[in-house]
Amino acid sequence: MNKYGETALVINCGSSSVKFAILDPKDGRIYLNGLAEAMGLPEARISWKFEGDKEKQKMAIPGGDHAKALDFLVKNILSKDKELLDSIVACGHRIVQGGDIYSEPTLVNDEVEANIAKVIPFAPLHNPAHLQGIRAARKSFPNIPHVVVFDTAFHQTMPPKAYRYAIPEEYYTDLHLRKYGAHGTSHMYISQEAARMMGKKPEEVNLITCHLGNGASVSAVKGGKCVDTSMGLTPLDGLVMGTRCGSIDASVVFFLCERAHKTPKEVEEIFNHKSGLLALSGVSSDMRPICEGYDKGDEKCKLAMDMFCYRLARFIASYYVPLGHVDGIVFAGGIGENSWEVRKLTCELLKEPFGIELDDDLNLKALGRLGYEGGVISKPSSKAKLFMIPTNEELVIARSAMKFVRR
Ligand code: ADP
Q1: For residue 188, how far is its CA from the centre of ligand 1 (angstroms)?
Q2: Whose CA is closest to 186, among 148, 226, 127?
Q3: What is the radius of gyration, based on Cα positions, of the chain?
Q4: Is there a catalytic annotation at residue 151?
């Protein structure tokens, strides 16, 4: 009997990184996690931590790519705990974009790989990296099921009135230009957790879920199904984010091209990497220094914070339309879980129109991820319950992968 029981390996490949974790899909206990960074560069390195280790271990893997990182995981890291290696019965891969092809976790085969390649135009940085990760992992772990879990899948239940753009139909039919959304795995997890905390089934509640990290999005979840979300064709749409502008009048693109002589590629770079909190605050794309600046009365940080919360509150308000009534609003992601100020400023804007009442004490206490499973942060009199719930995408991916294990 293996002391770890059955575990799942979860892999999340970015364009220059590989995150990995081995966890117990029953309770989410993490036995090993790690990160390989700067893939393909001379300074490529990998770091990892076994459960119970105080410090991370680190190793340089100069020029190492995704395949090298996974090979290192098997030969140099898991070789130290053969029993843990043997306990892995499934591997789940996080995939940013599944287009309108996938609405469920799917067992990888050659056709699935080809379909992930097909939607590369909608995720040009992520999907090629995911494919590298899948191919390398299938080689390193040949005898277990590999399962892909799509960030877009949860949003596939949106109706056309939410996902279509009001542009000529041929761009939808021929080029598949429509809203796909992102962070679906997180929206699904936090909506199910909120339902559980209310003692209800997901089908019985209407929720607005806010995933607020470096990338940020809001979803309207009606009876367990997504009916609208703030990200669009790509993650550029919607909220103000770390370096992304979010929703913007498309005419700004024409002006930048015509008057500032930017190319479309340059505008894409500006909107994705030089905008958002970074551009507004002039300080950082990271919310922490912006909160500090806001507290000290820095004008630009105040604008960044005000715009972030105003835009968020506007999106939340707009989702009362598809939901009719709202049972709960959930905050998650690095900002949603840690910034009591963002939650407070946002909820203040919703107080008068929707009768939302934040409990200041509970809000202040709801901080950090360590051992805190989240909970209610609203007053009993609030018309909708407010929650802070630490998201756990790895756990969803691990559980999804386990469903494909043949016993
Ligand atoms: P990613 O989208 O990269 O996964 P995270 O979900 O980790 O990002 O969120 C990162 C964001 O969370 C950053 O803007 C960071 O500043 C913010 N954050 C983390 N801790 C705090 C905190 N204590 N107060 C305010 N913001 C925080």
Answers
A1: 20
A2: 226
A3: 21
A4: yes
Residues 6+ apart with CB under 8 A from 65: 39, 40, 44, 132
C-alpha 242 – ligand 1 centre gap (Å):
9
List alpha helices for 184-273, DSSP H. Answer: 184-197, 251-258, 264-273
Distance CA 305, CA 67 (A): 40
Candidate list 24, 65, 151, 359, residue with the active-site label: 151
H or E stretch including 19? strand 18-23
Lowest mean pLDDT among 120-129, 163-172, 384-393: 120-129
pLDDT tens-place string over residues 131-178: 999 999 999 999 999 999 999 999 999 999 999 999 999 999 999 999
Residue partners of 147: CB distance under 8 A and separation at least 6: 90, 91, 92, 93, 105, 106, 107, 108, 397, 400, 401, 403, 404
- Domains in the chain, start-ordered, CATH in brackets? 7-150 (3.30.420.40), 200-393 (3.30.420.40)
**CA–CA separation, 193 and 203 (whole Å):** 12
187: region left, alpha or beta (phi > 0 left; psi from -120 to 50 alpha): alpha
User: What span, in angstroms and rounded, lies between the C-alpha atoms of 102 and 116?
Assistant: 10
C-beta 392 within 6 A of ligand 1: no
335 Cβ inside 6 Å of ligand 1: yes
Is the predicted pLDDT of residue 370 greater than 80, yes or no? no
Mean pLDDT of all residues belonging to the chain:
96
Q: Which of 233, 194, 250, 212 is nearest to 376 (CA)?
A: 194
Report d(CA 158, CA 355) in Å as an integer: 27
